[in-house]
Write a structure and sequence with these properties.
The protein is mostly helical. It folds into two domains: about 160 residues, Orthogonal Bundle (Helix Hairpins), CATH 1.10.287.1490; about 90 residues, Helix Hairpins (Orthogonal Bundle), CATH 1.10.287. It is built from six helices and four strands, in the order H-H-H-E-E-E-H-E-H-H. A hairpin with a 5-residue loop joins strand 2 and strand 3. The structure holds zinc ion (ZN). The site of zinc ion (ZN) has 9 residues, from loops.
Length: about 290
């Protein structure tokens, strides 16, 4: 087997290996994303809960103050009932009105805080919903990852063994070259030489679609050394059709086979081409 054929075989197995692992990596990425979401939700929730605690403490202070004012007002009302003079009564009334105004302001503040606290509680509840949803998604993703892992485990071992066997047959430097290209370019590590027109010497690389010089394409018929694309530097190879169109011996053989097939079909076979005849003289007009 030619060097490029051996490289191609390793390349094909590597592509399958990488494809398998890609699906596992995808499942791992989803799982990591949900875990990250959950941490963010937990952080937001903890902050809201701290803020809510502070608000509740503030609300309790206002509540205590309202109770204190209520008690103070009750005393004043009693004093008013027992006032001896009109002047004394008016003095208590003025004081009572001041307390009432304080109490109103106090109550207003408490109400604002309670509204804020209610809003916060709603936000916390919504985060809880979100958390539940993410936890479900995380469970699905974790199962998916396990399934993917189990699914590919056998195939992975199988393909790895296959790759190792094929790789043993390759020179170390060629294998290193291919490995490096696989790491940097993935599936574009190797490219087919697309034969457009042999006679006009038109070939291009299937990876970058740029033209290739004829000698590169022809060199691949022998395939005993690594040939790279002039433009994108992928390792080039010929597929069966390309190899046939570039190999004169194979082409001649294919023609010969076709001829034999044609003859064996009997009278229908195409007659060999006659040498070009002289044009017939024009018939003189009568
Ligand atoms: Zn190329």
């Amino acid at each position: 087997m030619h060097l490029t054929d051996k490289l191609r075989k390793v390349f094909e197995v590597e592509k399958q290996l990488r494809g398998l692992k890609a699906r596992l990596h995808e499942a791992e990425r989803s799982l990591a994303k949900y875990e990250k979401d959950l941490t963010a939700i937990q952080t937001d929730k903890a902050k809201l809960e701290t803020d809510l605690k502070q608000l509740t403490a503030q609300a309790a202070n206002f509540e205590g103050e309202t109770k204190r004012l209520d008690a103070r007002m009750a005393v004043l009302k009693e004093q008013m009932d027992n006032a001896k003079t009109n002047k004394e009564y008016k003095a208590f009334l003025t004081e009572l009105n001041t307390f009432k105004a304080d109490r109103d302001r106090n109550e207003q503040s408490a109400l604002e805080i309670m509204t804020k606290a209610d809003e916060m509680k709603k936000q916390i509840a919504s985060l809880d919903d979100k958390k539940g949803e993410r936890e479900q998604l995380k469970t699905v993703a974790a199962n998916e990852r396990t399934t993917r892992h189990n699914e590919i485990a056998d195939r992975l071992t199988e393909l790895t063994a296959q790759r190792d066997t094929l790789a043993k047959d390759l020179p170390q430097d060629a294998l290193r070259d291919l490995q490096r290209l696989l790491d940097t370019r993935g599936e574009d590590a190797m490219g087919i030489v697309e034969v457009v027109d042999v006679k006009r010497g038109e070939f291009h690389c299937s990876v970058c679609m740029m033209s290739l010089p004829t000698d590169k394409a022809l060199g691949l018929v022998k395939g005993d050394r690594i040939t790279k694309c002039t433009s994108c530097q992928c390792i080039l190879y010929l597929d069966e059709e390309g190899a046939l169109s570039l190999n004169p011996n194979a082409r001649a053989q294919a023609k010969e086979d076709a001829k034999i097939r044609a003859l064996s079909t009997g009278p229908k076979a195409k007659a060999p081409k006659k040498p070009k005849a002289e044009p017939a003289p024009a018939t003189p007009e009568a």
